Amino acid sequence: MGVRVSGEGQAEKFERLDALEQLEAWLRTPMLVLSFAWLAIVLAELAWGSSRLLEVFGTAIWAVFVVEFAVRFALAPEKLPFLRANWLTVLSLLAPALRMVRALRALRAARALRGLRLVRIVGTANRGMNALRASLGRRGLGYVVLLTGLVALLGAGGMLAFEPASEVEGGFASYGEALWWTAMLLATMGSEFWPRTAEGRVLCFLLALYGFAVFGYITASFASFFVGRDAADADAEVAGAHDLAALRDEVAALRGELLRRHGEG
Known about the structure:
By secondary structure, the protein is mostly helical.
């Protein structure tokens, strides 16, 4: 009896996994479109401020994200591992919900809501990263470059929100200034200004960590590209595939000659 119940449980688990995979495959394209639309809305709000139209579209897209996540959670055969694997998505979905609570509207300048804004930025970056990876189909230099641009745009919006010149001495007066500072930080060149707020410092640390991890990869990729282009030139000093093939042919000819003489001897 116990074996039969266990078998039925395994069958139900496989059915749920199959249904979840089919749902994700069916929703892949629509969710990609909505993810990029959500990214554009968040960027617009961070850079130029919110508006009634952006709030309406943002709320509608957020509601779709909540329903999609709820359905996936209901189909997941093991709930706790599913939540552990998607904890950042959960936080990013909770942040807009807490912003809508009227009791918190009077606390918009409070640190709690500033922390929620930071969670929203990180969650949007994570959703954008997943959308880019799904769109490009594979990871490579193009994916890293686009992801770096996405991180720079979101990071600049976040720094402008956390470190505005109107509230922080030496802060950013415009989105362009924040974008330039973020680009310099990602390029590991740094700047004279360093964040004053706790949220700005956390975001600065995350941006610096990303720049440290990725900038070396981008530099090495460009170096490999130029080295490979020089290697393809017959007059270049760098040995290319043609030179190596000719060298292998010469070594093979010498080896054959030595074997022939050894046989004659």
